[in-house]
Amino acid sequence: xxxxxxxxxxxxxxxxxDKIPFRYEYTAGVAGEKFLRGLQEGRIIASRCTRxxxxxxxxxxxxxxxxxxxxxYGEVGPEGTIAALTxxxxxxxxxxxxxxxxxxxxxxxxxxxxIVHQVSGKDARIGSKVEPRFRAKKGRKGSLLDIExxxxxxx
Length: 155
Description:
four-stranded mixed sheet, 3 helices
């Protein structure tokens, strides 16, 4: 019997509405956990490779230079430097913002990497020194949003 003669109504379905109950539970890993707990405590934590000495922000579990596991962590900053800067006219939900906001890539002395975050200060420009303004301690959750913004401290 040809295939077309064996088709049933189920075979003709092109779409259906339903929900698939996915539940994702990911951990931040050892290094990510240390970094996020540091934010919750009002500190920026970097990892440091004991072989080559390279520091990473956010903290990593393995050195990207020499591929060794990293087990040392320490604080950097709080002062950072704006390495890149842009103006965003769109909110996170995709709608147009009433006022644009500045978003910067903030790097820290002696560390590879950095943090992308909102920045304030009319003098904000590449090379400006900034410091994080953390949420009140009781409102912190161990997230990048524990930093409300970076503020320009000097040009």
